[in-house]
Amino acid sequence: MAAGLSAGTARAGEQFTDLRSDGNYRSYSLPEGTKEVELSEQLAGHCRFNRTWGYDLSNRELWVNGGCSGRFKVVTDDSPLNTGGSNVAVGIAAAAAIAGIAILASRNHGDDGDKRGDDHGFVGGNDDAYQDSGYRNEGYGASGRNGNPIRGLGGYCLDIEGGVRAGSKAILFRCTGGPNQRFYWGRGGELRVGGLCLDVEEASRSDGARAIAWRCNGQRNQKWRVSGGEIRSAMSGKCLDVLEGRSRSGQPVILWECNGQRNQRWSW
Amino acid sequence: MKSTLIAIAAGLSLAGAAGAQTSPQPSASAARQAFEVADLDHDGYVSLAEFHKDVLQSWRALDADGDGYITRDEVHRLPQHGPGLYRSLQRADRNGDGKLSFKEVVDARMDYFDHADTNADDLLSLAEVMAYRQRNAGDTATRR
Question: ipTM score here?
Answer without folding.
Answer: 0.79
